[in-house]
Amino acid sequence: MLEALITSKTRIKLMLKFFLNSTSTGYLRGLASEFGESTNSVRPELNRFEEAGLLTSSTDGMKKVFQANTRHPLYSDIHRLVRKYVGMDEIVDSVITHLGHPKEVYLIGDLARGIDSPDLNMIIVGEDIDLNYLETLVAKAQKIISRKIGYAVFTTAEFNLQYPHINQEKLLPVWKNTD
Known about the structure:
This protein is an alpha+beta fold. The protein has two domains: 2-68, Winged helix-like DNA-binding domain superfamily/Winged helix DNA-binding domain (Arc Repressor Mutant, subunit A, Orthogonal Bundle), CATH 1.10.10; 87-176, Beta Polymerase, domain 2. It is built from eight helices and seven strands. It has helices spanning 2-5, 9-19, 28-35, 39-51, 75-86, 88-94, 131-145, 156-162; strands at 25-27, 55-60, 63-68, 101-108, 119-127, 148-154, 171-176. It has a four-stranded mixed beta sheet with strand order 6-5-4-7. A three-stranded antiparallel beta sheet has the order 1-3-2. Helix 3 (28-35) crosses helix 4 (39-51). The chain is elongated, with a radius of gyration of 17 Å.
């Protein structure tokens, strides 16, 4: 979908990195290494995003560190677009809301860090989750979003026990029951 609108693969990678998880940060050489690209291909894209006000930057020693500008008027629109590209909106609409009593859903793995991946991994926290129905819905959702979906299901008590041992930087909240 995005490839049809945005022809720069580097630009798409940067959008995933910074607009899927607003707490993601990166600097030129680190991003180039992470993306497997040269600094010469990443630098102009970073500059375009920063000039447009979509990214902010700060210095950390000798490094210029970039992060999404969540105050930019287009931030929420780009965030939603990237979530649709990854398939999170479809997952929430077609899977999570039909499971029983889910409380929270977290994205984990590469996508949570803003790195495109064919795998979408998540943690589902809730009570009375119908695992058989979940498996059926996941199989259907995988066809819709063209990604392999992996998941772990925890009760609230189990998740609270595991939470201190989970790397918080690799855990991106994507849905919470507000009831």
